[in-house]
Amino acid sequence: MNAPDSVARVSRVEFELARFEVMGDRCQVQGRWSGVRGRRFMRPALTAVVDGRLVRLLADLADKPWTAEDGQPWQATFPYTLERAELQEAELTVAPDVTITLPAPQRPARAAARKKSSSRRADAAPQPGLRRAGGGSRVSADEPFDQVDRPRRQSRGSDLGGAGDEADALTRELAELRKAHSRLRHQLDRLEADKAQTAQRLDQMSRRLRQETHEREEAKVARDRIAADLEAVQRERREVVAERDAARGERDQMARERESAQRAHDELLQKTHAARVARDRPVSVRWVRWR
């Protein structure tokens, strides 16, 4: 059953999903990649959430899923033994920097599954005849030994070829992991250097902050001292102004007293002059009369 096409993008890499389906003991992903020219995938891994548990599945190497070409069909098959469990979420990882989120997979109808299971049991039922070496299916007793043994040799050759492909894939995956480890190590060293520089800048800023705080405290003390001196000067000024006002009052009082004394003196002089005039007038009259 084909799932609706969907396109996922990671940086410049795009994956157009054509099929994501659970079929019995297998889980199959099909689609087309874009933007992967010159890339070599590692062994694809399917990280799935199954009944609330995190499960990681590695792709079967028979499909050679480490090779991908732009626009060409691509397929990866994963062993899936959790037949009764429900696969809820899944992510497909084909490179350290390429992880694709997949929609929920589709399952075939139960009737089709039962039919396939019954057909498998029918195929696996024993047939009369000789059994092949290595536990294969039975063959007729009249079949030549060369024909009986040829499938076993072909099976061994295919097993060796599959093992070689798996070894090559594991070697490539190890190389990719080493490259990823080297990149991560380089990033870690750079982060450590940035951390050291940040700590140094933070220490410098802390020292500067402590110095500025100390200077601010000193400035505050100096400001308080200046404010106290200013208050003392203002208090002295108020006292001087009060003394000046008192002196002015005394001066005005003395001026008023002096004016009063001057008026009294002037009146006394007038009275003295009038008395002299009154005293001298009879004398002059008598003198005139005597003459």
Strand and helix map with partners:
Elements: E1 6-10, E2 13-23, E3 26-34, E4 45-50, E5 53-58, E6 73-79, E7 87-95, E8 98-102, H1 110-124, E9 130-131, E10 138-139, H2 145-290
Antiparallel strand pairs: 1-2, 2-3, 3-6, 4-5, 4-7, 7-8, 9-10
Helix content: 55-70%
Biggest sheet character:
4 strands, antiparallel
CATH topology of the domain at 6-108: Immunoglobulin-like
Number of strands: 10
> Quaternary arrangement of the chains shown?
single chain
Q: What order do the SSEs take from the amino end to the carboxyl end, as H and E?
A: EEEEEEEEHEEH
- Give, in spatial order, the strands making up the sheet with the most strands: 1-2-3-6
Question: What count of helical segments does DSSP give?
Answer: 2
Provide a descriptive summary of the structure in words.
With 291 residues, the protein is of the alpha+beta class. It has a domain at 6-108: Immunoglobulin-like. 55% of the residues lie in helices and 21% in strands. It has two helices and ten strands. A four-stranded antiparallel sheet has the order 1-2-3-6, with no helix packed on it. Strand 1 and strand 2 (13-23) form a beta hairpin. The longest helix has 146 residues, at 145-290. The relative contact order is 0.07. Residues 110-115 and 121-149 have low confidence and may be disordered.
